Amino acid sequence: MKIQIITLFPEMFPGIMDASMLWKAQEQKLLDISYVNLRDFGLGNRKTVDDTPYGGGDGMLLKPEPLFAAVRFAKEQDPDANVMLMTARGARWKQASAQKAADTQTGLIIICGRYEGYDERITSLVDMQVSIGDYVLTGGELPAMVVTDSIVRLIPGVLGGENSAAIESFSDGRTLEFPQYTRPEEFEGMKVPEVLLSGNHAAIEKWRTENSQQADKN
Ligand code: SAM
């Protein structure tokens, strides 16, 4: 799967993207991730990417010219890619959204907003507007990492045990995973539930079902 991230801060990504499963996915050529530096498309000698909002108000907005040029550049690398804009105003990202993206593995171009946001006209090039939750972050970089991580771990071959994602929290939309334990059987007076040591698979399944909570509908 090819993912291109349009950002003013590409240096934020390697620590997350080049570690653990995301690194493994790249090593195995299951993931091709690259960064498009919005600054490269800035205007004039100063490579300007932002300006004040019409109508007044605090802060700066990402200008349309660099954003359009960066998206068009990314589209040249992957013409069929979906363009995703990170915004607190977007549709809430869910496990089902990640699963759909992992199933199709259609390329993604993710735009990270900054400052007070972006000139609205960029939405004419966007297929999906995505929010990762009801709070405001400083930029779209963390949301882009969250979205990427949630998709890539679902690409077949990335996690190893192919069932590990299928039985996780939210895999059916709202059931949360049951509590899990590992050795030792007793730690600081706290014991592993007897049934998990019993070897009785039916009883273990029953206990796990009974101890799986339902997530909030929201
Ligand atoms: N003025 C904007 C508002 O009130 O919605 C907030 C802008 S925020 C400081 C800068 C950028 O961070 C946004 O353009 C967006 O790309 C990203 N961002 C912030 N919160 C986000 C969220 N919950 N989900 C996705 N992206 C978010």
Task: Indicate the topology.
Elements: E1 2-7, H1 14-17, H2 20-27, E2 32-37, E3 50-51, E4 61-62, H3 64-77, E5 82-92, H4 95-104, E6 108-111, E7 128-131, H5 141-152, E8 186-187, E9 190-191, H6 201-210
Parallel strand pairs: 1-2, 1-6, 5-6, 5-7
Antiparallel strand pairs: 3-4, 8-9
Helix pairs in contact: 4-5
S-adenosylmethionine binds at residues 86-89, 112-114, 116-118, 131-133, 135-140, 143.
Description:
It is a single chain. By secondary structure, the protein is of the alpha/beta class. The protein has two domains: 2-152, Alpha/beta knot (3-Layer(aba) Sandwich), CATH 3.40.1280; 175-214, Trp Operon Repressor, Chain A (Orthogonal Bundle). The chain has six helices and nine strands, in the order βααβββαβαββαββα. The chain has helices spanning 14-17, 20-27, 64-77, 95-104, 141-152, 201-210, and strands at residues 2-7, 32-37, 50-51, 61-62, 82-92, 108-111, 128-131, 186-187, 190-191. The strands form three sheets. A five-stranded parallel β-sheet has the order 2-1-6-5-7. It has a two-stranded antiparallel sheet with strand order 3-4. A two-stranded antiparallel ribbon has the order 8-9. Helix 4 packs across helix 5 (141-152). S-adenosylmethionine is lined by residues 86-89, 112-114, 116-118, 131-133, 135-140, 143.
